[in-house]
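Notes, Module 5: Reading structure tokens.

Key idea: the token line is not a picture. It is a compressed description, and you learn to read it the same way you learned to read a sequence, by spotting repeated patterns. We will look at two proteins. The first is printed below with its tokens.
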Amino acid sequence: METTDMDQKLEKQILIRSEANDRELPANLAQNPLFNRSKKSGFLESNFDCDLHKIIVEVTYWQKIQTLGFITIPHSVSKLLLRKEHLRILRENVMLIVRDYNNIIATINDKEKSLFKEHLDILDRTIEPGIRRHNWGT
């Protein structure tokens, strides 16, 4: 796995809004409910890099092997390892926000959206910095 561009992977936005996805899934995944794609757009998604998460998980095993002297952990990965717990907590908090926001959007109908438009606008303004300004590295 490439570890050279880890700083760039941390510069990704924290949140993204899902778009209506018209691409078809492969036949073997289309029937699986875990891979169902939403036809609605506007849901929130966490934008944490999957490869970065794999590196964090693998590093814990690398540390055990490093004590035996078989492997040395690159400096860039060691820097990431220092922030491992902070990133885990941040990822979990972001997922709480994503889950709650998506539950609100999924359960509210169009009539209720018009009634609560002001509150939904305040909610959107609150999460907007996570979409536009904040990233995983800061």
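Here is the second protein, with the sequence above and the tokens below, as before.
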Amino acid sequence: MQFANLTWHGNTPYSLDFNDIYFSTDDGPQETKHVFITQNQLKVRFSSLKNKQFTVIETGFGTGLNFYCTVADWLALAPLDTTLHYISIEKFPLNPEDMQRIANFWPQFALISNEFLPQYANLKPNSNNMSMADNRIQLALWAGDILEVLPQISQKADAWFLDGFAPAKNTDMWSKEVFEHIARLSTLDTTFATFTSAGAVRRGLQNVGFDVQKQAGFGKKREMLSGKFR
């Protein structure tokens, strides 16, 4: 397992592996809410949940910000007897010290980060199963290459967070093989959202069975993509 090679631009972590920032310099949590929470309609789906569990699959765990935001809404809105299954894949996980430094930026998520970070400190290659919030949150964090991890996953997603670095900088994350696995792990009610509006991503998702729409992006991003599996 290789930890991320990053540097700091002020309070912004910057990936030297992919020459890109981890989250918006405008407002990271608001970006997550705009792109992933809103476009997957998670608040409505959590508060009106019919099943006992809901599964999010994420391509790119990064700083954990998407996880924190999703868990906060789950704990506020989902019925008490339900479970959030959050499956995330990260080829180059941040080292525990950087993860702690980043978590300090967002004290609003301290309730969950205080449970998550001690477990993250024991991160190992491949699958890491973590439990939080009296077992209401089940995190399966995979430390490995996405094309090696996805074939090992069988649990269907209710929502996808497609959050690797930009397609031009991280081509493996946005390959035909990845899109085919995304389709395999989707049902007719599965939604997706992604910060990118790249034509190759739009066509790749359409080719495996997703309806894809362009939406207004966050901050400096003019457009993004979201949609539902057909």
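Summary for the second protein:
- The chain has one domain: 26-229.
- The chain has a mean pLDDT of 94.
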